[in-house]
Amino acid sequence: SPRDEPPYLSGLNAPQRDAVLTTEGPVLMLAGAGTGKTRALTSRLAHIIYTQRAWPSEILAVTFTNKAAREMRERMHGVIGDVSEGLGWLGTFHAVAAKMLRRHAELVGLKSNFSILDTDDQIRLLKQIITAADLDEKRWPARQFAGLIDKWKNRGWTPETLPKDETWAFADGKAGTLYAAYQARLVELNATDFGDLLLHMLTIFAKHRDVLEQYQTRFRYILVDEYQDTNVSQYLWLRLLAQKHKNICCVGDDDQSIYSWRGAEVANILRFEQDFPGAKVIRLEQNYRSTGHILGAAGGLIAQNADRLGKTLWTEADSGEKVRVLGVWDGPEEARRVGEEIESLQRRGVSADHIAILVRAQYQMAAFEERFMRVGIPFRIIGGPRFFARLEIRDMIAYFRVTSQPADDLAFERIVNTPKRGLGDKSLQRLHQFAAATGAPLSVAALDIAGTNEIPAAARRALAQLSENFRRWREQLLTLPHPELARVILEESGYLAMWQADRSTEAQGRVENLFELTRIMGDFDSMESFLDHVSLVNDNEEARDEPKVTIMTLHAAKGLEFDHVFLVGWEEGVFPSQRSLDEGGLKSLEEERRLAYVGITRAKQEATILHAANRQIYGQWTSSIPSRFVSELPREHIEAETSLSGGASLWRAALDERDPFADVSRATQRGHGPGWQRAQTYGRPTRAATQIEAKPVSVTVGAAPRRDLSVGMRVFHQKFGGGTIKGIEGNKLEVAFDHAGEKRVLDSFVEVQG
Ligand code: ATP
Ligand code: MG
User: Fold this and answer.
1) Which Gene3D superfamilies match (predicted)?
2) 33, 253 contact by CB (below 8 A)
């Protein structure tokens, strides 16, 4: 009876229960946003442990973010108590694969304490490899090659299995050789990049059946969230692991597939039933997250995509507030407006924790950070220029890395002369040669070269001192608690003193961050587990627990939910991104639309979309037109408002799907031709005096032609700048623009000049 039912089952609907109770055999849960997929998956995990079908250590559970893993772990603790601590294989693909690889590192020539390189390290290494091959790094940029390697690894290709034609993708046919050199160098450094974590495991599984069988036997149950975004190597890895027990449950939503640019393949969903014959497919249709208007808006938008499986969603919730679409003058006003909206929500008693701002690209974040700091709105940045990516944090972590792993040359290089130790380029070059000749890591060679007269005395003393420091810290690794050791290193390295002596404005913040770093370390049981975390974490653990507004990218928001969501920068070229427009294909545009769908469906109670008429991008002011996604939202689910008279019509036109710029919107692709560039960019636009005081007005559809305009008059147009009226026809004007040439525009887009 329901009364004796375990707590994790109560409240689930019939298909959710089905997904929980069908523990044996392959299960695919395919359903739209907010239908309780993750909740059902979590309950399934609880059920398996609660009914003792497996020990926690026999379950592999893959989540998309560290945050999701943490939440799932917490929920498990609530349901099954301390037993949940045994969930050693619950985490992201990266975290779980790293743990696995540490156990078998020697099978691919690594030691179990290998370092995981971040993108910066990876690029530095690739630069060295490209230059060593006598290639011009300007012509063959390391960054481009890094992208290529990432793609190959996501497809499961090693240097040995790389298809022949791929080798022409870079450096005139030398790509394969470079790839092999890079992999060899990583092994020498006792390091991996992100892609290696799974790729090495695939190699090990292929060559050592016993290792594979060990895991196939161990993992009695496998659970995977956000399955639509798995790439080929993740898919191959899962498929191998599931072969024995075949108790694999994957959940996903094809409409939320947003990582194809990183090698994710929606096709993995479709392949599931083929790979696991007899798989049970469960569909969920009731949305528990959002109001009717939010769902209606999101549903109408995603319906514009041709390439989708299609599904029904309904909700019992009220229709709620309509999705608001706000047109503002420019980027700074957007940030100001969002700040005001948040303050007004806070006055209504809404906690900042329940508010999120979702951006399309990282660079959009800064405006909000800056604004919120100024007005005192607490916020956290997730997936952005995050704590662990800051210069001072990365420097300090390099010290920790060399301490825990002497062979970590990249880390050593980073700090060998930071703070300045009077080591010249020549001395460092000699050190490199010395290390290469003796085959020793740099941190060891440093001590050796200090005993020779290869380099000047001052440099010898500096290196001897640094080596001695590392030797001592390494010893203390065994005797001191690691947060304490961290503080010792901070002081004795002279690194902290360097910033304390710095008079620049950001130095104080850096010092605070360094202390924060030693504080955070205390949350980990060892220096190594901390370093692992740093390599793997993709969100930012914050210090104080006051409620904070979350600022994050749309990509990072997948799977999450907030009461109030602000979707900013909905303009052509920002969202959909310029890149997706340049590529021009339907595919990339559809992926952008899925991203918009993900964005709107994060909202539980209110979604607010903003677009600005002017935006500064890479230092240049550019006028912009509302995103096509704005016009694709079903009108009955939205409410438009704008602080611009011109904006009102722009928007209205967009709504009516009679975009007056339809003919030029293709040309708005920034960077397309110098002529267009000239027409697009100008000094920061100033508003006409009448607009400065303009209060937000609701859109009135079907405005009459204006009577204040006549032929010969000077006007200012939001998009095209200044010009002279040549002719008037109803509400349409013929204008000779100073820079953009002759155009027909709607009268409501122009302001009288002077
Ligand atoms: P997404 O596709 O965005 O990842 P999802 O399908 O994983 O969404 P969940 O995050 O699991 O959806 O659930 C969405 C919201 O609905 C959560 O707040 C969850 O607690 C709630 N929910 C899920 N199932 C039920 C249910 N049966 N009864 C009440 N609320 C539910
Ligand atoms: Mg989910």
Assistant:
1) 1.10.10.160, P-loop containing nucleotide triphosphate hydrolases, PCRA, domain 4
2) yes
DSSP assignment letter at 626: B
Residue-level length of the chain: 754
What token pair was written down for 559?
């799977």
d(CA 191, CA 450): 26
Summarize pLDDT for 130-185 with one digit per residue, the tens. Answer: 999 999 888 998 888 998 999 999 999 999 999 999 999 998 999 999 999 999 99
The residue whose CB lies within 8 Å of the most ligand 1 atoms, and thus the one to mutate among 251, 289, 294, is 289
Q: Is the peptide bond before 576 cis (omega within 30 degrees of 0)?
A: yes
Chain segment 25-37, per-residue pLDDT in tens: 999 999 999 999 9
752/695 Cα distance (integer angstroms): 19
- Judge whether 199 and 233 are in contact, CB under 8 Å: yes
- pTM strictly above 0.90: no
Q: φ, ψ for residue 554 (rounded to 5)?
A: -60, -40
Owner of token pair 């002719």:
727
Query: What's the CA gap between 9 and 46, in Å, rounded?
Result: 9
Q: Which residue from 13, 16, 30, 39 has its CB within 8 A of the most atoms of ligand 1, so it is best to mutate?
A: 39
Confidence of residue 51 (pLDDT cuts 50, 70, 90): very high
Spacing of C-alpha 52 from chain mean position? 37
Quickly state the pLDDT bin for 396 (edges 50, 70, 90). very high
Q: Helices marked H in 283-405 — which ranges?
A: 292-302, 331-347, 365-375, 391-404
CB 600 within 8 Å of CB 607:
yes
pLDDT > 90 in the chain, percent: 55
CA angle 327, 342, 617 (to 5 degrees): 45
Residue 240 has pLDDT above 90, yes or no: yes
Using the mean position of ligand 1's atoms as its centre, give its distance from the Cα of residue 575 in Å. 27
- Look at the block and give the residue holding tokens 């100008």: 682
Q: Average model confidence (pLDDT) for the chain?
A: 85
Tokens of 285: 């249709």
Instruction: Assess contact for 577 and 363: CB atoms under 8 A.
Output: no
**Residue 280 annotated as binding site:** no
CA gap 195, 152 in Å, rounded: 9
**Cα–Cα dist 621/640, whole Å:** 25
pLDDT (mean) for 645-660: 44
Q: Which two tokens stand for residue 660?
A: 């007056």
List residues with catalytic annotation.
37-38, 225-226, 256, 602
User: Quick check: 381 and 540 in contact, CB under 8 A?
Assistant: yes
Strand order from edge to edge, sheet including 721-729: 741-746, 732-737, 721-729, 714-717, 750-752
- Closest ligand to Cα 561: 1
Q: Which atom of ligand 1 is nearest to the CA of 13?
A: 27
Q: Where are the beta strands (DSSP E) in 398-493?
A: none
Q: Please tell me the residue having the least CA distance from ligand 1 atom 19.
A: 36
Q: How far apart are CA 739 and CA 754, in angstroms?
A: 18
Q: Which of 530, 441, 446 is nearest to 483 (CA)?
A: 530
Two structure tokens written together for 184:
């060899």
How far apart are alpha carbons 81 and 78 in whole angstroms? 6
Task: Say if residues 226 and 268 touch (Cβ distance below 8 Å).
Answer: no
Which residue has the CA at smallest separation from atom 21 of ligand 1?
288
pLDDT tens for residues 717-743? 766 778 899 988 877 788 888 877 787
* Rounded Cα distance, 542 and 438, in Å: 44
31 assigned binding-site residue: yes
How many whole angstroms from 42 Cα to the centroid of ligand 1? 11
Which ligand has its closest atom nearest to the C-alpha of 20? 1
Q: Is pLDDT of 549 > 90? A: yes
Query: Where is average pLDDT lowest: 56-65, 103-112, 251-260, 530-539?
Result: 530-539
pLDDT tier at 678, thresholds 50, 70, 90 = very low
